[in-house]
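Form 12-C: Joint structure prediction
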Amino acid sequence: MRRGLVFPVTAGAFAAVLPLTLGLNDYYVFLVTLIMLYTTIVVAWQLIGGLGGQLDLGAGAYHGLGAILTGYLMVYHGISGWVGLIVGGVAAAGVAFIIGYPSFRFGIREVWYALSSLALVLILQKIFLLWTDVAGPLERYIPYAEFDPIFMRSGYKTFYYYVTLALLAVTFIIVHQVRRNKLGLYLQSIRDNEEAAEMLGVDVRKYKLLALMVYSFIAALTGGIYASMVGFYHPILFDSWISIQTVTLSIAGGLGSFWGPPITSIILLTVQEYLRITLGAVIIGLHQVIFGVILIFIILFKPDGLGPLLDTVALRLGLISKASKRA
Amino acid sequence: MKAVEVVNVSKKFGALTALSNVNMFVDTGEIVGLIGPNGAGKTTLFNILTGFLKADSGVVRIFGDDVTNLPPHKIAQKKVARSFQIIKPFPSMTVLEAVMVGGYLNTSDEKTARQRAIEALKMVGVHHLSDRLAKELNTQQLKLVELARCLATQPRLLLLDELVAGLTPSEVDKMSELIKKLNKENGITVLLVEHVMRFVMNISDRVVVLNYGEVISVGTPEEVSGDHKVIEAYLGTKTGR
Amino acid sequence: MFSADLFTSFIQYVVLGLMLGGVYALAAMGLALLFGVANLINFAHGEYIMLAMYMTYVVSLGFIQDPVLSPIVTVPVFFLIGVLTYLGVFKRLVTAPPLSQIAATVGILVLLRNLALTIWAAEPKAPPYTVFATSVSLGPLTIPLDKLVATVVSIAALLILYFFLERSRLGVAMRAAADDVEAVSLMGVDTNRLFLVTTGISMALVGLSGSLVMTFQAVTPTSGLLFGLLTWAIVALAGLGTVRGILVSAIIFGVADSLASGIWDPRGREIFLYGLFILILWVRPKGLFGRR
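Section 2 - Result
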């Protein structure tokens, strides 16, 4: 088998049978699905953040929007979750455009871009808290169905596991392709030096917007899947923590690395869940405190993140090809 | 057709007048040098030509097209390439990747971009550095890579901003040969801003001199270096200033 | 009369907003100093303010009952926190690219926010008692005394800071560093120590403002984000440079905040403030008063 495919195929095979190894235990499958949902956002974020170099903290906004809209359409209009996902995705991309176009046009960058994207999360949360027709302060419950794949609703978490797995796989493929083509190279040039890129004919604003909109679309899909899985939606899903978590995991995994962020994401999120289960009941919030400490340590002592380390190990083990390395 | 036409261009920064009714042109196929004391407005003019600044008034035409209000990337798409006074490398990319960014101009095909990049690297003589990262290179190499980046876009017009600053005399001479070759053999029109007289006077067909935002002299290198207005601009008048 | 009442309310809100602005200015000043002098992006600035607010709460439960007196504790403690933060984290960040600074301070943000969540849970906390609980009447206006004291203290602190920056050697060095760090170090100033002191002062201002803000509002673990965005918004509007610039910018936000909460809808407060922030970024990225 081609070198570069060993790892993905192995991992894919493992992932495909994971629910079975967990004995189809709803709780464990739920946790694993959750981890994969957040990892999907991390992978999608590589488009705008890893390659594009924009410190986007808007993941919570797009994830939440997907959850609210998908949920709303399912609850109040009986529209299938699949359609709801697309609607949520398109809406998120639209919001991304509305905030992205002026931001990029006016050259908002670095800390100011990070802050304004974070503000978006909080603004949307407040809007939907007040918009009682659609969301409001109380949870809205999605009607239960034991197994209705057409409506995209199931009492079995395994259903959502495979939906998420499919989304994660597609996201991987998208990001992988982008890294090798014109879009990926252009985004890196924007990340490295916008002015030089501009002078070589790169329409900086257009490509930033493109990356932003694709990533926001995918983030919204994760939100829609989440809402359907837990069976309710609420503006609390516009969660700034998701934004921060995504960025943290990406940086810890190594910006520009392909496998670094997702692997780091899976590892750290699993650790977090473990800590929450063991310690969380005793000391609430402790598991997230540790996140903060980890991030500080990585920035101070290993600023390139774990990515390069993971990449080297994987390369040595013959799991990935050289082309998958740093970008 | 003229490669570059600057018609009555003016630019002010607050109370400071950077350019005042500047008129100049570059014929297709020429090498024109733009010189003048520090602060004369040369880089401002360059920035206006390449879309990084908007002129307050006046018109800029490149190969007949009005580019006065176009953004940089649109001007680049008209086959105009520019190097920067302070080099702007792509730190995380290899030399080949960096030059391929230029190669992707007006195409989406990876092979085409790569082809153009390799040709450009060879033209400039740094093909052997293809797999190196920017941080491993010295100044001269970085300048050559930046030049290759420009050439990968297959430009008709090349704008060089202090290309040879910081280079040794022999490196400067090598650059001279390279630019002359690009001009004669590849038909690239060149407009360059420069302080290093050895370089400018050697390769320019014509020279335009700016001082305090105004054109004070135009002519061949010999004519201009003999022009007392130019000498005064650089050295000050006898009564001192 | 109907319109007279409305007018009075309006003036009331404006006055309240002016006072709020004074305290906001103090809160934002620390950030501006750090960003301007040491070129440090502290993404966790709001969380430090939140921490100061919680400390005020704890102190007010303890031996110093009145929150307006708590600066006696919070100011020196936070100066120390500033020193420790610098030695532990900031020192290495000064030369790091902006992304690393943001990432590391986000780490601090996460740490502080969840620490607060762990210790104090999610309910709002406010000090139980203040001796300044009365109000002063100024014509038709009612001015709560505790808020007034807080504002006066804030303005006083800003004045002291202003003179410090103008007259003292250290202050001048700080202002010079804000202009050109290399030149300053070439002139023999120990930039490391300079930045250390700057961080200490920045945090001391945070400590003071955190205590004073408690006269206006209660604290929750999400206060950090609110103050973070607010202070950054004030810095964005002011551009960098002057105490006066920060004060004017903060007053604009204070009045806007007060009017929006009073006249429109207090629940829409965040939408308004954050929306204003984004608009300012789009329209005036260089700020009102100077460089960014």
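Section 3 - Comments
The radius of gyration of chain B is 18 Å. Chains B and C do not touch (no CB pair under 8 Å).
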